[in-house]
Amino acid sequence: MKQTILAATFYLGAATAWAQSQTITGQVLDTAGRPVIGATVVEKGTNNGTATGNDGRFTLRTRSANPRLQVSSIGYASQEVTAGGDEVSIRLADASTGLGEVQVVGSRSQNRSVTDSPSPVDIIDLREVTTKTGQLDVNQLLQFVAPSFNSNRQTGSDGADHVDPATLRGLGPDQTLVLVNGKRQHQSALVNLFGTRGRGNTGTDLNVIPAASIERIEILRDGAAAQYGSDAIAGVINIVLKSSVKELTANVNYGAYDAKYRFDDEKLDGGNFNANVNYGIGLGEKGSFVNATLDYNRREHTQRANIPAPDGLARRQYGDPQISNTSAYLNSRFALTDKSYVYVFGGGNKRKGDAYAWTRFADDDRNVPAIYPNGFDPIITSDIWDASGVAGLRTAVGGWELDLSNNFGSNRFEYGVRNTLNASLGASSPTSFNAGGFQLQQNVVNLGLTRNYKTVLQGFNLAAGAEWRREWYSLFAGEEASYRNYNPSATGGSQGFPGFQPTDAIKAQRDNFGVYVDGELSVTQRWLLAAALRYEHYSDFGGTLNYKASTRYNLTEFLTLRGTYSTGFRAPSLAQINFNSTFTNFVGGTPVEVLLARNNSAVTQKLGIPSLKQETSNSANVGLTSRIGSSLSLTLDGYYIKVKDRVVLTSQFSADDPVIGPDLQALNVDQAQFFANAADTRSLGLDVVLNHTLTLGVGRLNSTLAANFNKLRIDRVQTSGRLTGREEEFFGPREQAFVKASAPPSKINLTFDYQLGRFGALVRFVRFDKITLIDWNGDPMNYDSRITTDLTLNYALTNHLQLIVGSANVFNRYPTLFNPQLTETGGAWDPVQMGSNGRFYFAKLQARF
């Protein structure tokens, strides 16, 4: 009966919408009168939309008599027009970054559009992506649409289970700068210690910002430290928040995995539920607005501990953690005069997580049978608070545009452990503990000035500014029972994750001051020259001067050459400098106590390991962009990135080491490792993006081939102090393999997107290349290449309601299987490639009014 009612409702709604509709036709052109291919035309306040064909023309069925149409295309300023009964003709002006516009990352010019940038920039429209893919969080969205971006979910990796590390062009998570509306976003307080990606790095947690609050994401695939400061060695990710008004968007999404590998009879697990709402209010006639987003996401555990090891199971619980995210974000602007306004944006995120730790079996000497007669599986919990806020003023002063802002951000990570015990307390042990945690805060004051001189040759843009930043880092201890040993004959501390000790606790801070100048000169209408110079001084390691030079030349109307050369730097994070912990690692299934000693500790000083210093880089990018005919575009960008003195996490030295052994035995630990500027790396790569638009009858097919080819080499390993000459042990093949696995040789994305009236279909193939890791026996683990296939269908039930269904990894592909006792995480595979959860089914209901 329910199915009959639902079906009747579906057909009645669709029929009613169709009966009340009218047909609008038109053409979208640029200022030179050329057709704009693939421009998006949407009836405002609805999900009803279409795109222009090869001749810039479109046909759209609408419900209202005089609908408002929103017309947009990357590289052009968006327009709203009222469509009557006659044909609509629309001319889109080039997008600029003048007063009142959001900057396109990579340029501070007032009249530079993304289409003529001297550096490669990807623009990802989140409205399009979230409608046509099954991924819900920002990291996973980018993983499957941006080939140069890589992110893997971790398991058995302590904090990295709760904060997904991500990389750009195969470099570290902390070598990509993240901006929100052009302002520096704070990093996570977490240091990644385990897993295959981001090992020893800090990074920015992109998932604290809900996808529902984002208009677009700009990815600058080029070194930009001279333009934006520390961390921009690999590039910049700029998240642009929504500014729409008088439009309500609500989404309800659910998906689950079809598990191929499980013990029980369950077929689906890892349920992922998301609900969000976004609404914008216009204030007055001068462009003032307030746009707000609420988002809730809950992701359940997956269970993949299904492959037996030769001597029994390595773990009884292995899979994705359970995560719940609650976010609220706001973007606003308040006009003061025609030439000045105040802006405020930011938000908060509350995350709680449960992640599996290694199994303690019944006969394990770390178990107390009186509490757990069958052994136990500890759960590491997280309580993460993330908040940020930016307030600023933009105004015209003489011929200059001035931007003054203050930006504060905070990330606090608190650990807990449950379903566990402290074996040294025996049968009286608690089964849950507060294990301590850490916090990172940042405050940035920024002043920027921009001026465009239209009479200097074909135009000269000059920008200059200054920035002051203060950072705070603190590490705080857990409750006493989480770390203390009450019985020397037993193992102390909470099993799964020993709490931070009072001797680990620290509070640190530093200041940074930077000044920059940035110029772009259009020598002719075809030839652009650009340069940037930036000096920064850190209170903890000194100053650095960096530069960037760029050029772009239009050989013809359809072919453009571009190139850049830059130097860069990245200051070691406060977390890398000050983190200290004793944790339990499992080597071949055997628990080992490992000391990670902070950089200026007594142990590191005794070994002669010097204080951490900045990483430096030299990078070059040479590319071409081409528009072949009216429906085909191509970009090719080759790059070279050399990083010197890269901060890495060293190999682990054992207590029987002839040099360090006695010191470790005195500390009662089995192994130790450190942060050090130990490696020089070199990356050589190529980014390719090919787009094609084809009109098929009354429908439209967009095809995209996007690929990243990358080769990372470790040129030199540098040791020091008492460990001089022991390069193979200091940063050995196993640790080097983890760095190289973050830079897979290639990732290729082929997408076909077809739209016919209210119906749409998307098919995506993603090829993840092979990588090699080293197991605990020192043998290579060769993960073969894999191709995943995604399928999405969408249908507009009414002009305001859209249904999307589909499957990611529809053919249920998994990484190569290995002995769980020999992998890093104790599962049948490490967290590599496309993930290890298998086929994902999803459905979304989207309303827009």
From TrEMBL:
Could you list this entry's UniProt keywords, alphabetically sorted.
Answer: Cell outer membrane, Membrane, Receptor, Signal, TonB box, Transmembrane, Transmembrane beta strand, Transport
In terms of PROSITE patterns, this protein maps to: TONB_DEPENDENT_REC_3
Listed InterPro entries: Beta-barrel_TonB, Beta-barrel_TonB_sf, CarboxyPept-like_regulatory, Plug_dom, Plug_dom_sf, TonB-dep_rcpt-like
Q: Where found, per UniProt?
A: Cell outer membrane
**Which residue numbers delimit the TonB-dependent receptor-like beta-barrel domain?**
348-810
Instruction: State a GO cellular component annotated for this protein.
Output: cell outer membrane
- Signal peptide residues are 1-19
Q: Which family does it belong to?
A: Belongs to the TonB-dependent receptor family.
Instruction: Give the protein name, as stated in the record.
Output: TonB-dependent receptor
Which species expresses this protein natively?
Hymenobacter taeanensis
